[in-house]
Amino acid sequence: MRGRVRGPAIFAGLLLLTLVLMLPAPAPAPARAAEPAPGVSGAVPPAGPAVGESIATYDVVLTLGADGVLYVRETITYDFDQTGEHGIVRHVPFRVGDRVYDVRNVRTSSSTGAPSRARMTRFLHDVRISVGDRHREVRGRQAYVIEYEVGRAFTPRAGHDELVWDAIGTSWRVPIGNAAVRVEAPVPLRHVTCRAGAPGATTRCLRDRDGPYAVDFIQTMLAPHEGMKIRVRLPKHAVAVAPPRYVPPRWTGGWPGTAALAMALGAVALIVRRPVPRRRAGVGLAAAGLLLIVADAGDEVAARGVWAFSLGDRCLAGLALLIVGAGIMCAYRAPSVPGMRGGRPPA
To answer: Which residues belong to any copy of the DUF2207 domain (predicted)?
Structure first.
């Protein structure tokens, strides 16, 4: 009997865990501590996994194109420890909430001769830019340059157009000694701000130099997972702003789909206590559920791309059928016990 329970229970548990992990995480509560002085991070650097590694300098140039595209150039001076690494990994968000950005035309190089081949992968919310060589290790101080473009980065407002972009990101797991961000625009910049730190606990960046078409910000001693968020307000029609692109949330299911999924999990638990249906029925239920999932996902993937897929009622109903069908098939694959044939009690 234990063998019959283990298969369906593990399968159902893994599916349930997957659904839970896909739910959006709650936003962190804003900190109410006193704000540190501009240009100095207010967080205590936590112990990071990369002991001995750090970023000495991180220079970013954000060029606001007249075509509405954000042109980014990052120069990263990275100090590797003596154990050696294959390069660096930069995570650039292409999805924030339900909004997606067009991250494209990635180019990389190194002024210190380090391997600088770029590999791009998209996963969940980020574009993962791996710079280096899988077969070569680097040590000591190395400098990398990463260039890319971001389309649909501006947000049209009633009286102005706005850009909000974290120039460094919060995915770095090493401290950053000195960071500088330069914002350039085709029109005079009158409303530009910078906040540094972790989400919910930021401080004003130090404004270094101002010009009619460029503004510089600097920040020292950034802890791991701290960034520099830039906010720019431009007059209407200063740049050509493309309409923002939105995709459905990860979870769009309502009560019908959720109830069907809950009933399926309960049905799996009852399989071990009642006569198991024929294996052919389990195969049919699993196939029907898989077809329903593919049909639901196919429309969204074809229209918006792979990472725009969301869990709707049709997908949840398909998961319910797939869980029940898999539970029946797992019961038949379980080792036989006395008085049973093929995992099914005799009629």
So the answer is: 54-232
Edge-to-edge strand list for the sheet holding 54-64: 102-109, 138-151, 70-85, 54-64, 176-184, 214-222, 206-210
CATH number for the region 54-245 comes to 2.60.40
- List beta partners, residue 108: 146
Which amino acid makes up residue 170? Answer: T
**To 5 degrees, how large is the angle CA 91–CA 41–CA 36?**
145
- Domain ranges within the chain, ordered by starting residue: 2-24+249-333, 54-245
Query: What are 60's two structure tokens?
Result: 């970013």
Task: Please say whether the beta carbons of 279 and 8 come within 8 A.
Answer: no
